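Technical appendix A lists one of the benchmark inputs used to test multi-chain prediction within the project. The record comprises two sequence entries:
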Amino acid sequence: MESNITRIFTDSMILVGITVCSYMFIRSIQVRAKGLAILNPTLWSGIFIIGLIQFANLDFTSYMIANKTITFFLAPMTIALGFSMYDGWHLIRRYLKPLTIITVVTVLISLSLAQIGAKLLGLEGAIAYSVMPKSVTSPIGILIIDRIGGISELAVFGIIWAGVVGNLFGPIIFKILKIKTALAQGYSLGAVAHVLGMSRANEMGKEQGAAASAAIGFTGILTILVIELFLRMNIIHPLV
Amino acid sequence: MLILNQLMILFLFGLAGHLLAIIVPLPALILAMLLLFISLLMGWIKKDKIEMVSSQLMAISGLFFIPMIVGIIEYWSDIRAVIIPFLLVVTFGTVGSLALTALILEWMIHRQDAKEAREVKLEKLERGKRSHGE
């Protein structure tokens, strides 16, 4: 009897189903809680499934193999970012010069703050490298980790955490610093907190949302270029 | 059909990205993304040909990362000791760069607005003078 039930949970459709169902379930809770960022469905679904593996004997290897189906969609999603960039283009076209400058500045700020913080708290090697892509969207972050070395799972965790932080604190920061233009709010949210920042920006207004979606694409590309440049100039040494 | 059709366009751009990656030293996915952006901008491909799948993929993008989070188990013994400082670095880094980015951008936008307003005023003034001279 027990072995029959265990067998159900090695079936790949059921294993993918667990991922999808827990995501949709936590997401519906989040919607009911008016989009409270800390209820991030990705984060909590991940923790829930880790709990199942640790305490309910769900098989880790078969879960990971079955859920390659889900991970696959990261590739078309990354390409679809090109559409988001186009979607925000009409808004950012007018301020092309300040936005070009700010994209360079924000990429450099993000990378250096990550490295300074890692130094201060004594993170080293692969762990310190996994902080670096924190402000870009995850598929781009994974590409960066592939290039410089580091633990991609940890990097994704950091990326999602950065998104949650940006999503939670964004509106508070804007209030304290008196940031009022829709473009500055949206673009900075997208540039620092990627897709999660974009979802908060969409709640703030349509202009903010469009600026955020453009910011995700542009900062992502620029981060890759800057890291490539740093690698060529031997400022960063790849671990792989 | 509709979904598959639009997904196929994304795959075709993926293929184009891979082909381009042979000569351009950037990740194929990024090149595909740029190609899609440029094609939309140039009007080579209509917005509604790709809009549905793209916006749906973005809307549920969180789902695709769950297996990656679960995969952290494999490294848990390595990272258990550093997870708190790691999250602290990410938290402060994010708050810091968000504040700086928003501040600098807000300042630059105001500056451009003020400059444009000044230029418009100058133009008006000049036009006024000219018409006066005639």
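The mean pLDDT of chain B is 88. Chain B touches chain A through 73 residues (CB under 8 Å). Comparable benchmark entries are summarised in Table A2.
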